[in-house]
Each structure stands twice: as C-alpha cells, then as structure tokens.
Write a structure and sequence with these properties.
globular; about 325 residues; Arc Repressor Mutant, subunit A; five-stranded antiparallel sheet; single chain; about 15% strand; alpha+beta; 2 domains; Jelly Rolls
Amino acid sequence: MDTRDVVTSTRRTPDEPRRRSDEGLVPRYTIYGETFPPVVDFIEIEPIRDRSELFDWSIDAHTHAGLLQVVLLFGGSVRVTLDEMRHDLVAPAVISIPSSVIHSFEFEPDSSGYVVTLADGQLDSTAMGPWVRAQLLQRGLTLPLDADDPLGRRLGVLCGELLHEQKTVETGRVATMDWLSQTVLVLLARQSERLDDSSSGHVPSDLFREFHGAIEDHYVEHWPVRRYADHLHVSESSLNRLCRAVAGATAFEIIQDRLELEARRRLTYTTVPIHRLANDLGFVDPSYFSRFFRRRTGSSPRTFRRERLPAPMPDTSDS
C-alpha cells in the first residue's frame, strides 16, 4: 500500500476554518484530522466521542486511501453523507465505508459507539474476506440494527475487547485485534445479507473484483470494454454476463458509473476549472465531457457545481 501522499499532512484543530481546496479533492486522512503511514496490518478502534467531541460532533468531508472504516452507532443519531447520498440514522445502526469513498458526519451530541479502521488489504487476507467485501463493502452502506437484537450486544462486547487489546502490549496483540475485527465484519456481513431482499446467495467472483480493480486503475484512460476483457483474459460477452449477474448492469455501464462518480466528486469538492477537470478525467474535448455529464445527470457540469457551492455567509459588518 502506497502511503506517500499521507505522511506530511497535519491535524486540523477544531477552531480552524473549514474550506475547500482549490486543487485537490477533500482531505485524505489515515484517521480523521491525522495523517501518518499505516502499516500493512493497520487496525485502529476508538469511541465515537473521542474524536467527534473535539470537532463539535461534526466531521467534515474527507476520505481514506487504502483504508476502510466501519462506524457502529450504539447511542444517539447521525447524519452521514457517503459521496452524494445523505442518510439520517438513529442508533443502533452501522455505516460501512469502503476505501476512497468521500464521507462526512453530523453526530447528535453525546452519541456513542465505535469507529473501526483497518487496512483494505486486511479484508482479503482471510478466506471470508471476499464474501465480507461483497456483502458489506462493495459501496458505502448504512445498516439498521434492531434495538432488541442480541447482535448489538455481541458487537459491543467485541468492540470493547478490541479497544482493550489496542491499549495493551501483550503477546499476540496484533493477531487478536485482527481476529476480533474480522469477527465484527463477518457478523455485520451476515446482517447485510439477511436484510438484502434481492440477495440470492450469489457472491461476486474473483473476476468481478478484478474488473472493479482494473476500472480503478484505468477509468480515466477510457478503456473500452474489449480492452478490460483482454486484460482479464475473458471475452466481452463473458464479462458482460458476469456484470449483469452480479450488478444488474453491463460492463460499459459500470465503467461509465465510475467515471460519472469521479466527475461528481471533483465538481463538488474542488474548484478546479471545468476544462482542466475534463482533461484530468481523460476528456480531450471539454465539450464532450459536458455532453457526457449532461447525458448522465441531466445537468451541465457548471450548473451541477453551482448548485453545490456552500451558501455565502451573511454580511454582519456595520453599514
């Protein structure tokens, strides 16, 4: 995992004004407000209060590179934004956040629970990892829990044990934290599977995950479906059948969805001129980017960005 882009950033203090970057996307942290190079087997747990209270229970939009998070809300409520989707959740509930998804939180004061952060590669280090990823971390997910479900108590006990192991220096500490965090993820993946009415028990294959990985590496190069198929050593028709079975969409649609998502992110969270943004996303002609974006969203890039600009602060100066 390459962490070179996260080693030099600093921690934002609660009083520091919030502002969007003119060039980059939203801040990229290891843990919110902090950037340090996580090790390959990185696992971190902390109570929601520990960090949220420092920032008046409001966590600005940010992302994590190569790290995934699970937020377990056991008390209070939260408004969470995952990319552009906003959800209002009341405890008990769970939020799963895959690597690189832009997210923010507005917690009700005195909310309680835990935030578990671990290296994305940790998920694939066990036999259950691919199934957990398919059920819980294909996309940002919110997961309600029943108040009287014993699952909540089990998760609370596991998180308490995970926090205890983190604070101690004992033989087997890392292995125990790995086991506890993997158990939390498996229990949540089971719950997600039970609540998914459309679930047929089908687990996306290794090939589908490889396709998603290839898209992440090459979507700005505008590879055609045939090139992805060649890269994966399958035929176009086989790749399309797989995508329809797993995601209900063609391979081309999945590629276009990723490109649209990145365009939305950059229009929302940066002020880079649209012609430069189009070039960064692989569009040689900005007008073609505008047509692509309008066709996908029904809005021009300029209008989309303008509608998402923060409202100007009222002028309170004396006249």
